[in-house]
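Bench log. Compound arrived from synthesis this morning; before running ITC I wanted a structural hypothesis for how S-adenosylmethionine sits in the protein. Inputs:
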Amino acid sequence: MSKNTRLVAAQTLVRVLDGGQSLTSALEHTLSTLENPQEKAFVQAVCYGVCRYYHRLQFLLFQLLDKPIKDVEIYALALVGLYQLAFMRVKTHAAVSETVDATRKKSWAKNLINALLRRYLREQEQLETLANSNPVALYSHPKWLISRIENDWGENAPHIFQAANEPPPMVLRVNALQTTREKYLQQLAELEIEAQAVETCPSAIRLLKPVGVTTLPNFDTGMVSVQDTAAQFAAGLLELNAGQRVLDLCAAPAGKTAHILESQPDVECVAVDIDATRMVRVETNLKRLNLSAQLIVGDATQPESWWDGKQFDRILVDAPCSALGVIRRHPDIKLLRRADDLTALPALQAQILNAAWSMLKEGGLLVYATCSILKAENEDQIAEFLATTPNAQEIPFEKNPAKHGWQILTGENGCDGFYYARLQKISISA
Ligand SMILES: C[S@@+](CC[C@H](N)C(=O)[O-])C[C@H]1O[C@@H](n2cnc3c(N)ncnc32)[C@H](O)[C@@H]1O
C-alpha cells in the first residue's frame, strides 16, 4: 500500500527539527523505507524545500495561528502543507486533502490543518506581501545569520541569501587518470544526460539536471565523482609535482584527497581526520577510485600524537568551519546551526593552521580552505596568521590582490561559497 508522502515528509522533518539530525541522514533513513521512485522524489523535494524556506513558512504559519502548535509532527505537517501551496506546482485540492489526511487519528489537528491551509489560499496575496516586508521571511534565513552576513558583505548580502536558497547544480569531477573531460562529455551525451564543461575549472562538468550517480557512466569504477566546482580548485592550487610528500589535514570524506591523487598520482599522500567514522568513508571513496593514501585517524591540533616528524612539501588544511557557503546543498544548516556554534571555530582553525605550519618544509606551500563565507574564518584568520608567523608569505590571487586569499561568495560563477589562501614557508635567516 502506498504511504501518505506528506506524513513521511513531516516525520523526516521532525528528526531534524526535534532530533537535531542532519537532513542528509534523516532522509537516508526515510528513503530506504520507500520503494516508489516518484514517492522518494516527492518526499525529498518537500523536505529540502521546507528546510530552504523554513523561516518564511514559519512566518506565514505564525500569521495563521492563534497559538503555537505544540505537537511537533503536526507543526511539521503544517509547514509541509504551506510549502506545497506556496512553492510547488501541485494540485491545490490534492495538497490540502492529503495533508489533512496525514493528521491520521488526531481530529483536532485535522480541523486545524484544514482551516489554516484554506485560509492561506484565501489570503495568499496579502500574506506573501507581509512576508516580503520581514527580512527573516524575505530571505528565509535566521535573524542572527542575516546580521552576520550583512555585517561582512553589506549590499552583497541579499544576493548571498538568494543564492543560498536556490537548488545547487550537480557538478562532476572527471578522474584524469581514467579519461578526459571531452571523452566523458561524449559518454554523457550518448546517454542523453545534458552537461557542460565548466570553463573556469579543467576537471569540472556541470549537469543541467541532477541525476542519480548510478546512471552516470563508469561511476562505479571511479571515472567521475560528484564535487562542486569550488572544491575542485584545491588540487590545482597546491601546484603538485611528482615525488612530493603531501599532507591532507581534515581529509574526510576525501573529496580533495582523491582529486590530489588524480591530479598527481606520484606523490606520497597522508590523509588525516579526527573522525574515525568519517575515515571509513575515506576508505570507501578511495577504493572506488582505485587510489591509495596513508590514512591516519588523528587530531590535527596535536600532530605529536601521530606525525612521524618528516616534513611535507604541500599541505592542504580543509578546516572544520561553519559551512555557511554550502547552505544551498545543506539547507538544514539554517535550522540546526546556532550563533554560539560559530564562536569557537576561528580559534580551532588557528590552532590547526599553526600545527600544520610546523609540519611544512621550508619552501613548501600550504593551502588553507573553508566552505565558509565569514571573514572571521577566512581573511581575518589569514591576516592574523600572517601577522604572527614571520616565516609565512602569502601568494596572492591575481583576481583579489588587495585582500588575503580568494573568497568565492555563494552562487558566484555557479559555485558554492568557498575560501582559499596560499601560504609559502620562507627562510627568515636570509
Ligand atoms: C570540511 S570537512 C573536510 C572535507 C574533506 N577535505 C573533503 O574534501 O572531502 C572538515 C573535516 O575536519 C575534520 N576535523 C574537525 N576537527 C578536526 C581536528 N581537530 N583534527 C582533524 N580533523 C578534524 C572533520 O571530521 C571533517 O571531516
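What the model suggests: The radius of gyration is 24 Å. The mean pLDDT is 96.
ITC booked for Thursday regardless.
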